[in-house]
Amino acid sequence: MSEKLKNSPLMRAFLWGALAAAALPPVHLLPVLLFSVPALLRLTEEAPNWKRAAFIGWFYGFGLGMAGLYWITEPILTEAQTFWWLVPFAAPLLSAAVACYTVIPVLAARLVPAGLGRILVFAGAWLASNLAQQFLFTGFPWNFWGTDWAIPGVLGNIFLQPAATIGVYGLTLLTVLLSAMPLFGKRGLVILVFGVAAWGGYGYLRLQIPEQNTALKVALIQPDFQEPPDYSRPALIANWRRLLEMSHAALLNGAGAIIWPEAASPWLLASDPVARQQLAAVTGTTPVIAGSLRMVSPTDFRNSIVVTAGPQPPLATYDKWKLVPFGEYMPKWIPIKIIPSMVGRGFTPGTGPKTISNIPGVPPFGATICYEAIFTGQIINEHDRPDWIVNVTDDAWFGNTAGPRQHFADARLRAVEEGLPLVRNANSGISAVIDPFGRVVASMPLNYQGVLVANLPNPQPVTVYARWGLRIPFMLALTFVLLGLIYGNTRRLSNK
Q1: Is the preceding omega at residue 305 within 30 degrees of 0, hence cis?
Q2: Region of residue 153 (phi > 0: left; psi between -120 and 50: alpha; otherwise: beta)
Q3: Catalytic: 320?
Q4: Catalytic residue among 320, 328, 354, 417, which?
Q5: Cα(first)–Cα(last) distance of the chain, in Å?
Q6: Between helices 163-179 and 116-135, what is the axis angle to 10°?
Q7: Annotated catalytic residue: which of 100, 322, 328, 370?
Q8: Residue 496 in this model has a pLDDT that exceeds 90
Q9: Residue 235 pairs with which residues in a beta bridge?
Q10: Is the full-model pTM beyond 0.90?
Q11: What is the pLDDT of residue 316?
Q12: What is the structure's pLDDT at 45?
């Protein structure tokens, strides 16, 4: 078998990519990248031509995707009677598409000879490929190596701190550069040790900045409703009663604002005065930030956040604008319908990031729903900057897999990047209050039903990344590619 693998660079690329997925949440086995990244670069160098190099990059990305995105099949299994035929294809097809982005840095690396120049080009091009992944074909910014550092506890808190300046993309760039250091032997290992030490030292010092809480106590309601939902009237009524009972328990614990997860309300709160009256009978004028579907017209449904404070019409609404392809809508270029029946023809997207203000007793907050939290640099309105971020989601569709845990890791990074506390409320977990440094102040685990009441942390001053946003990774990618090309080709000329 070993001889066969030795003579099969494509299979080796696939296996090295699959191994790299062990660095992702929730495993966080980052040392595997010290073997996987150098192996990819060696395979790239050994490739006899550009075509073979492209295949090596693709197979590496395919392995990374298959091991890191296996959980994508879970929602299909909830409607297996309809979409059974998709089960064997979902993860491979998505992984095959995402793997195309890995071809970019591999081909770029071949533009310069082996050495420092190649590493710089490879790292910059890897960053550029991640940026393309966020924006092309509806965008799917997942499996970024910067999230590897969202390790639970103190260690993760420390290593997430540079994200306040360079974002998850910058963490990815540092990860690629450091992972390639074993190629330089002892000198590379010395650079690796000093690099990690400097990174950790910076993070430790940044965590010494004082952080305090506001007076507002927020309540996270985690009802743990089953997915797919039971739409029979008895089930809807039972779910409604559970939400009301849990909201009442939150008030008894001093909550000044109550948050429900994505699409939790069984009724259309924005247009149902009876439901709002029943809710107000329990919560009074305490603001409720509720995940609820919203009907604008008989053909226009929105996945929304509806803010109520009494029986009157809602104080504010927010419509999700980054919809999940194949889950919430069908891309026009797909000729067949393969979204869940509960969605009908699909949701209508909102207009973009929004700050919700003028809610009595509640600081202005940026609203995000589920999948939107993974889009770094695109989740809040920086021209109307909020004091905190609310992220409601329903990860129950993905079961007890890596998916919900990877989603949670992304949420921690958004808090650090923006310098804002983030309150994440998930139907079945992980729900948490996260401070502006990415520290988990309080949380409820996966597959748990409960109420969490905690003080909302204060925001920090505007971070460098919040101020400059995605211009930072664009400039980093361009700078490292240019530096690598200049250095690599200068060395090539001097060796002639």
Answers
A1: no
A2: left
A3: yes
A4: 320
A5: 41
A6: 130
A7: 370
A8: no
A9: none
A10: yes
A11: 97
A12: 94
